[in-house]
Amino acid sequence: MEAHRYVILVVQTIIALLATIYINLHGRFNEFHKALVSPLFYISFLLSFIIALLMLFYIDMLSTNLSKRYPFAKNKLFHLIWHLILGVTAPTIANLILMMGFYTLSGRNLLDTYYINDDLPIVFFYLLFINGFYFVWNILKPFIKGHQTPDTTEPQTETQSGTDQQYLLVYNYQGTTFKLHIPSEVLYIYTEARNTKVFTVKGNEYFCAKTLAGLLKDHSAVGLCQVNPSAIINLLALKGHTPGNRSKTLMPVFKAEHDLVMSTRNLDTLRITRKYIPDLKSRFNSHGNYPPGQNS
After folding, report:
1. Of 2.40.50, 3.40.50, 3.30.450, 3.30.70, which CATH number belongs to 162-287?
2. Which residues, at least 6 apart from 91, have a Cβ–Cβ distance to it below 8 Å?
3. DSSP 248
């Protein structure tokens, strides 16, 4: 993984350097010999390179965070809109403001320079190209070796075998799929921003193509139990429950081995509401668990 990130960093640096050379010399090659003896040229070149590199890092971070929160396969239009707003328009305006400040500090009027007519359009198309690259990469990524496209349709079969019920197909924000063993690997599942997310005993979080209703239909026999309209808990991971801080609610208590990964999680997401308390209590003992105060 470290080598992979190093290669990406080298490629990003080369792209930023090439873009900087083109931006600074485009339409001004006949003045290059004069620029070489001007300190302002080197300052401008360095500033342009830093800005180009920061833009690349920013767009890379934007694409990654969008994919983590909103899986690309189901939110292509959403990604496109935000790439155009946050990845193209906002950086173009920011670049214009920065260069305006630079020319003001150097005692020149921005309107008297090449920037507005020559450099700014190049910056705009540079941003458009980089955002377009990430968008196309997200489309092609599932077809590249090592990536699979998750099935976003609900299963049509009425029942699954006992072995199949124990495993859940999930995928990360890059589209790579995994099989999780529900009894031993899954702590809880919840919905956020129209996505179903699976939190594991190792503290990892994955996406799942199934709805909560579909999960309960296919996997309730292996210990999954709904605790509120937006969350399902693995009963095998519970030690018990305590009274909630709201009327007629309970809070789950996880087994000691899960304390570390759960210490940074928001337990309010897993509040057991009134409607789901009877089912949880009735199923709790059937999965080998005992309420607080009782011994197994």
Report:
1. 2.40.50
2. 55, 58, 59, 127
3. T
Query: Cα–Cα distance between 292 and 98 in angstroms, integer?
Result: 61
- The half-sphere exposure of 73 on its side-chain side, counting CA atoms within 13 A, is 21
| Percent of the chain topping pLDDT 70 | 78
**Rounded to an integer, what distance in angstroms lies between the CA atom of residue 220 and that of residue 203?**
22
- Report yes or no on whether pTM surpasses 0.90: no
- Ordered by start, the domain boundaries in the chain are 2-143, 162-287
Residue 45 DSSP label: H
pLDDT above 90 for 39:
no
Cβ proximity of 283 and 221 under 8 Å: no
Segment (H or E) for 230:
none
pLDDT tens digit string along 112-157? 777 787 778 888 888 999 999 888 888 887 666 444 444 443 333 3
